[in-house]
Write a structure and sequence with these properties.
2 domains, 488 residues, mainly alpha, 63% helix
Length: 488
C-alpha cells in the first residue's frame, strides 16, 4: 500500500497547484489590471513548468507500476493518474511552458482584436497558437490522428470519426425542424431597459434556486461567461446587456450547471484525480440541462416572468406568452445566444473547421474566409463583422482545440439524462412552476454529479440513465417542445 499512498499524496499536491493556476486564470478574466497581462503570462508559464515537472516525475511511473489498488475508487484514481502521466511525458517541458505563456497573452490580443473588429491583429498570434498545438498534438498522438489526440483532453475515449458520424445523424432532423419553424411568425424579444444591478440581483436569486452555494463561490462579469474551480471554491461569471436580460439570466443558469457539478462531487474526492467533472461533454450535459430542459421549460418560464416583473416592472410580454418569447427561434450569428434548434449547427461548423486546421486542409490565414463561406452555406446569412464570425469565441485564443464538439455531446447527454429524469422523478414540472428545480437537481446530484471522475464519460451517462447513449432523446425532446410551443 505504500506506493499507492505515496502516489495519491503526491497527486493531491499536484491537483492543489492546478487549482491555483485555475484561480490565476479566473483573476485574469475578471479582476486583473490590464497592464498586468505580460507578467501574468510569465507567472502562468512558471506554474505550468512546475505542474509539468510533477506530472512527468519518474517517481509517478514507479509508484504506478507498484500500486495495488483494492477499491473501485483507488482503481479509478490510478487509471486517471496513469492517463495524465502518459500524456504529460510525451510533451516537452519547454513546449508546455511556452503554450501556457502564449495562450495567456493571446487571450488579451483576441479580446482587443474582437473589440476593434480587426481579424488581422489576431491572426499572427493565432498562427503561433495553432503551430504549438499541432506540435503538442503530434507528440501526444505518436503517429496517430492529431485531432483525436486533442479530443482526449476534453472527452476521453472519443474520436473525431465517431463524433462526425453522430453529427451527420443529427443534422437532418435539426435542419428539418428549423425549416418547419421558419414559416412561423415568432414573437418579439422583450423590449425595454433592464438595469445592470437588477439583472445581477435576479441572477444571484436564480443561481441560488439552482442550488449554487455562495459560501463556496461568487458571481462576477466577464466578456465570455465561464465557471472556474472545483471542490470548495467554484466561481462563475456572466455578462450583462441592459437591453437584453435573457443573456445574463441564462448564462448564469448555464454556468451554475457547471459549478454545481463540481461543488456536488463527494467531499472525499476533493483534490484527487477524480475530484473534477469527468469530461467536458458530461460537464456540458449539466449546464445545458439546467439551462434548457429545466430553465427554458414552459413551467419555469412562467415562474421567471413573475420574478422579472418584481425586478424590472411590467414586461412587454405577458406570462402566458413568455415561454414562446424565451424559446423564440431565430437564425443568428452568435453560438452562445443561439436557440436550441440552431445551437448544435454552430458547433458542427467549428468542429469541421478544427478538423481541417489539424488535418492539413486549412491554414490560419484562410480561416476567416472558410468560416464566412461555411456560415453562409449553413445559416443563409452573410457574416457582417468579425465579432459575429471568426472572432466571437475565446476558445481558439487559449488553445482549446477539440473543446467545441463537447458542447453538442453535452446536449446529447442532456437529452438522455432528461428522459431518464422525467421517467424516475414525478412532478418535475409542477415543482418548476413554483420555481423549484430541487427534485430534478437532487436526481442529477445522486445519479451523476457526486461521482466525479469515477467512471468514463460514456459509463457516467449510462450509469445515470440505465440506457445506451443516443441522439434520439434530444431530437425527440426538441421536436416535442417546439411543436407544442409553435404548432409545427
Amino acid at each position: 500500500m505504500a506506493a499507492l499512498e505515496d502516489l495519491l499524496a503526491f497527486n493531491r499536491t499536484t491537483e492543489a497547484l492546478g487549482q491555483v493556476m485555475g484561480r490565476l486564470g479566473w483573476d485574469q478574466e475578471t479582476m486583473m489590471p490590464p497592464a498586468a497581462a505580460q507578467q501574468r503570462s510569465e507567472e502562468m508559464a512558471a506554474l505550468e513548468s512546475v505542474l509539468h515537472a510533477r506530472r512527468t516525475d519518474p517517481m509517478v511511473g514507479e509508484w504506478l507500476a507498484q500500486a495495488r489498488p483494492e477499491t473501485d475508487v483507488d482503481r479509478a484514481q490510478v487509471r486517471e493518474i496513469a492517463r495524465s502521466h502518459a500524456r504529460a511525458v510525451k510533451v516537452p517541458a519547454d513546449l508546455a511552458a511556452e503554450l501556457a505563456r502564449l495562450t495567456s497573452v493571446s487571450q488579451g490580443i483576441w479580446a482587443k482584436a474582437r473589440a476593434a473588429e480587426d481579424v488581422a491583429a489576431f491572426l499572427p498570434t493565432l498562427k503561433q497558437v495553432v503551430a504549438l498545438k499541432r506540435e503538442e498534438a503530434a507528440a501526444i498522438a505518436d503517429g496517430g490522428n492529431l485531432y483525436d489526440a486533442m479530443l482526449q483532453d476534453y472527452e476521453p475515449g472519443a474520436t473525431a470519426s465517431e463524433i462526425g458520424a453522430l453529427f451527420d445523424r443529427m443534422r437532418p432532423r435539426l435542419v428539418a425542424l428549423r425549416d418547419r419553424l421558419a414559416s412561423v411568425e415568432m414573437p418579439d424579444a422583450l423590449s425595454g431597459t433592464f438595469p445592470e444591478a437588477a439583472q445581477m440581483a435576479l441572477g444571484r436569486e436564480i443561481a441560488e434556486r439552482f442550488s449554487y452555494d455562495f459560501d463556496h463561490g461568487r458571481l462576477d462579469q466577464a466578456v465570455h461567461p465561464f465557471s472556474s474551480g472545483s471542490g470548495a471554491d467554484v466561481r462563475i461569471t456572466t455578462r450583462v446587456d441592459e437591453n437584453e436580460p435573457m443573456g445574463c439570466l441564462y448564462s448564469t443558469i448555464h454556468e451554475v450547471g457547471h459549478a454545481t457539478y463540481e461543488l456536488h462531487i463527494a467531499d472525499e474526492l476533493r483534490l484527487t484525480a477524480l475530484g473534477q467533472g469527468v469530461s467536458m461533454g458530461v460537464h456540458e450535459s449539466q449546464s445545458r440541462i439546467y439551462e434548457n430542459q429545466l430553465g427554458r421549460s414552459e413551467t419555469f418560464c412562467r415562474f421567471l416572468h413573475g420574478r422579472m416583473t418584481e425586478y424590472f416592472g411590467e414586461l412587454s410580454a405577458p406570462g402566458d406568452e413568455i415561454a414562446r418569447v424565451i424559446n423564440r427561434v431565430e437564425t443568428g450569428y452568435i453560438r452562445t445566444e443561439a436557440d436550441e434548434v440552431h445551437y448544435n449547427l454552430h458547433v458542427m461548423l467549428r468542429f469541421d473547421l478544427e478538423r481541417q486546421l489539424f488535418g492539413g486542409a486549412l491554414e490560419v490565414a484562410d480561416l476567416e474566409e472558410a468560416w464566412n463561406s461555411r456560415f453562409a452555406a449553413d445559416f443563409g446569412m452573410v457574416v457582417d463583422k468579425p465579432s459575429n464570425g471568426v472572432l466571437q469565441d475565446v476558445h481558439w485564443s487559449v488553445g482549446l482545440f477539440g473543446y467545441f464538439p463537447t458542447y453538442a455531446l453535452g446536449n446529447v447527454y442532456a437529452g438522455c439524462l432528461n428522459a431518464a429524469l422525467r421517467r424516475d422523478v414525478p412532478g418535475v414540472d409542477e415543482a418548476l412552476a413554483a420555481g423549484d428545480p430541487g427534485p430534478a437537481l437532487a436526481w442529477l446530484r445522486e445519479n451523476l454529479q457526486r461521482h466525479g471522475g469515477l467512471r468514463s464519460p460514456r459509463d457516467t451517462i449510462i450509469h445515470a440513465t440505465g440506457a445506451e447513449i443516443s441522439e434520439a432523446p434530444l431530437l425527440d425532446y426538441l421536436d416535442a417542445k417546439y411543436g407544442a410551443l409553435f404548432g409545427v
